[in-house]
User: Fold this.
Amino acid sequence: MAGPVAIVAAMQEELGALLAAMPDEQRVRVAGRDFWVGHLHGQAVVAVLSRIGKVAAATTATVLLERFGVRAIVFTGVAGGLAPGVRVGDVVVATKLLQHDLDASPIFPKYEVPLTGHARFAADTAISDALAAVVAGVLRDPVALLGQAVVDDFGLHAPRLHRGLLVSGDRFVSTAAESAALRRDLPDALAVEMEGAAVAQVCHDYRVPFAAVRTISDRADDAAHADFLRFVAVVASRYSLAVIGAWLAGLSSPARSG
Ligand code: ADE
Assistant:
């Protein structure tokens, strides 16, 4: 497989930690976004801030594929927990992704992306398995990564890895009523965010592998906004860097020459 790997996050805080770890990044500006081209753990990487929402994410993915020829896209960031056991500080590695706000019924079945025959887009199994293995290792000792004070502050004592359906929509879900409706309509959804399923759809169109790993920042309820930005900066950014870094370090090819 040729081409760099794309690492995408929606928020500046997450990308910042990753960029700081890239020794040689060069900025290429396309469509109002900064694409950071360089290496991380010896792997050729393009890191980019997608901005928030499905259209912003789809634009970013298309540029990554068309202009940078990336061989895979991995989305990292945060999500709101939906399923009962998915708690703040847990991590979800997606197996499938769906747009929860897409409904062209009765012309097409609810959630189906018209003319594709798909509502659920599969994440790449090999990349997702590798990410999940790394996440399991990281979550075994959250104190080592975050320090005792942060673990105590956010109550992150026994974080868990979950694998399954991640749903995306152009809405920050911040009421208990909204998250209850999503649980009712999509009972197997683990978590909700605002970009992943859009990127999965673009990658499906281009036949390029895609994976998503999201730290749970809130329970998508009335308290969802409370500590959100602090959680992203203090917890999720470190999870992202540790997970993506360990995953890249474990990739065998193509390695950087020199
Ligand atoms: N990303 C993180 N938390 C979220 C929420 N509650 N709704 C949508 N996207 C999110």
User: Anything to note?
Assistant: The mean pLDDT is 93. The domain at 5-249 is CATH 3.40.50.1580 (Rossmann fold). Helices lie at 12-20, 54-67, 125-140, 142-146, 148-154, 176-185, 196-206, 228-250. The longest strand covers residues 72-81.
